[in-house]
Amino acid sequence: MSKVMEKKNVETSVENNKVSANTSKKAGDSSVFMVENLNLWYGADQALYEVSMEVPEKKVTAIIGPSGCGKSTFLKTLNRMVEMVPIVKTSGEIKYRNENIFNNKFQKEYLRTKVGMVFQKPNPFPKSVYDNVAYGPRIHGIKKKEVLDQIVEKSLKDAAIWDEVKDRLHENAYGLSGGQQQRVCIARALAVEPDVILMDEPTSALDPISTAKVEELVQELKKKYSIIIVTHNMQQAARISDKTAFFLNGELVEFADTNNLFQNPQDKRTEDYITGRFG
Amino acid sequence: MLGQNDQSIQSRMQGRVLLNKILMVLFLLATTVGLVFLVLLFYRVLTQGIGYLSWDYITSFPAPFPQEAGIWAGIVGSVFLMVIVATFSVIIGVSTAIYLEEYAGKNKFTDFVRVNIQNLAGVPSIVFGLLGLTFFVYMFQFGYTLIAGGLTMALLILPVIVVASQESIRAVPAEIKEASYGMGATKWQTIRRVILPAAIPGILTGAIIALSRAIGETAPLIIVGAATAIYTLPDSLLARYTVMPIQIYKWTGRPQEEWQFVAGAGIIILLAVLLLMNSIAVLIRNKYQRRL
Amino acid sequence: MDKGLQSDRNQLNVQELIENNKRKTSIGAKIERVIPWFLLLCAIVSVLTTLGILFTLLRESIGFFSDVSIWDFYTGTEWSPWSGSYGVAPLIGGTLLITLIATIVAVPLGLMSAIFLSEYASDKVRRIIKPVLEVLAGIPTVVYGYFALTFITPMFQGIIPDLGIFNALSGGFVVGIMIIPMVASLSEDAMNSVPNALREGAYGLGATKLEVVFKVVLPAAFSGIVASIVLAISRAIGETMIVTVAAGATPNLTFNPTESIQTMTAFIVQAATGDTSFGSTIYYSLYAVGMTLFVFTLIMNLFAQYISRKFREEY
């Protein structure tokens, strides 16, 4: 098992280089999000302070930091899910592909078809696997069965779960294991072919083997999607991400290429955190 | 000295333990009193009514002689009435619950609606009868008709349905709502495709229990003029009607003993219908409880 | 490995499909805007119901009080509307007598049942007995009326020979049986929510179960228990069919439970089934009595809510 994984890691890291070589050529227009001076309050409590960062396209961006540092809040701000809490207020700007997502004309439903999300705990609907994956296309008006069939198959294949569920597409998704449920949830997010996928600690509720599968999947997915992943696990960030952002007490402390950040942190607090001195 | 003290503590202890035992038996007996009367009631109704229960009884109209009287008009009237009650109370009740749980802001108006529903649930049913008499019978000029009775009863059980629906909507996990919003679903899409399907078993259970209360209600229907003896089946919303409990009430009130047997037979049917409804509610609850 | 992602990059482009559908979904956007208003309208129905009840009771009562003075209504001691006497005291007395008997029956039995279920019974026993006990609350009241008239009254007549066919005793007794599950169920909930740590503290000092019940559980659950009793009493006040069938139709200011009486609710039924013509004084008197009844139960319900709100703050 571990041998196979090692081999794949080698493969993927080779691919990483290729991809980054590709994207670095056309740098400049290659960012999906431009965050500028973002502040966020839950009622009177400020949760994010003056966050500015640029999220690159078709790369894996990891967000790390101790719990309560605002990393999940930041992630949920990117597709405005944070507004589910009614007392949230923000200032500053987030530009998705050069459009301010807080602009009144910018519909949050539209944003969320472009910016999909995978949650901390696998959260399939109490419906069949098929209906779970077809949910997104359906709510956006795609009704033809042939089209839906195609989308479901493709999404499940892309989420590397097709072989495990192809014979039980019409069974309730609650019957799957936690790891399988999480990959169905990833397939569900892929079904609308979003531009960006946000992942909020997607492996924190999974066992090691399922975690490895999801990590592997992330490496595959970044060929087509820009991925932003929140993780409390620094090794995971080091393994799978191209860039890493370190958050502390609602501030973005450091944002750099993953290798640089872990090997050569510029900020004392980053160094303390990655060497395990707190958090 | 010490020995004596020990002894007195021990004897007092024995007294306390004994008292505990005696009162436990008393509490147990008190609990069984309610159950005993339940059994007595069933036994009494069965022995009184079973002799008059027959196919003819079920399919006959009221008659001046006990042997010929039947409850057909009551059964049909109750069914028709329940269709009206269910239609109005479920649509309005579930909508109210969705509004309160998913749309309403945290403001004075919402609090007022909540407290108001709580209070409505405690208003005696006969007062709803007076409401129906003023509005549906006289002001809207429906008269003593099926629709007047149905609307009155729908308002009566509305609070029960609202509260049951609110509870089952609230029980839908936040995670799957988030999943839906995260896919770019709008609020109504999320409600229709995720929240309601997950809440339906609970809503259904609550609605059936509420309807089983309505099907046994008598007082408000007397006030809004359900007929006591009727020889045709209602053929429109504006037809006169009777229901099972009204027929039972009328038969119970007659002095000759035979009529009490007729009433007993009617009660057996009414209780059988209630048993059926409650069994369905329990079945639904058990079947879907584990899903979420 | 690559097969999964690349080979399927075929003619299908979901975002494009979504984009195309967007023009068609302007109807969807309209639904999205209309739905909350429809739901709000439905929520307002319950408010209108309350307003309707208040409106009808007040308006018709005012109509009544223009015929009969409010003073005579509340201080008069004779109720015979067909001969023009409108003193409501006998009806209120009848209601209170029934409620008193029902309370005497239901409160001790209900409380003892609650103590047994909450403190003594095993989980399994509780899970069987509680629903069965609650069946008592689901039986139609007209069935209780039948039971009171044809079974309880003859039974009591065996003990009290000069008991009439219609009497307050059997009506009140059966109302009491009916509200046992309300007292038992709600009190049991209150006792159940007393934290176990409190009980364990007392057990640790060597208290018996009984002492724990009386010194710890009952005081801690006190307001919940009071609320359950108040709600049950309110239910007894508004109960109609049992008393109409079994307690008689004799407005009678008495506290002798063996006599026939008439409650407020029973009068409303009697007047509505008799040939009362719309707009007559008797017709209006229905509403004056109904409003009195409504005020009684409303006060009880508000009181119960006030107590249980206080109760929730305790933990």
Give the CA-based shape of chain C: flat
Here the CATH topology of the largest domain in chain C equals: MetI-like fold
Task: State the end-to-end distance of chain B.
Answer: 65 Å
Question: Which structural category do the helix and sheet elements of chain C fall into?
Answer: mainly alpha
**The number of domains of chain C:** 2
Q: What is the name of the CATH topology of the largest domain in chain B?
A: MetI-like fold
Radius of gyration of chain C: 28 Å
- SSE ordering of chain C: HHHHEEHHHHHHHHHH
CATH superfamily of the largest domain in chain C: MetI-like
Strand content of chain B: under 5%
Question: What value does the average pLDDT of chain B take?
Answer: 91
- CATH level 1 name of the largest domain in chain C: Mainly Alpha
Number of domains of chain B: 2
Task: Outline the low-pLDDT stretches of chain B.
Answer: none
CATH arch. level architecture of the largest domain in chain C? Orthogonal Bundle
In terms of per-residue confidence, which ranges of chain C show pLDDT below 50 for 5 or more consecutive residues? 1-10
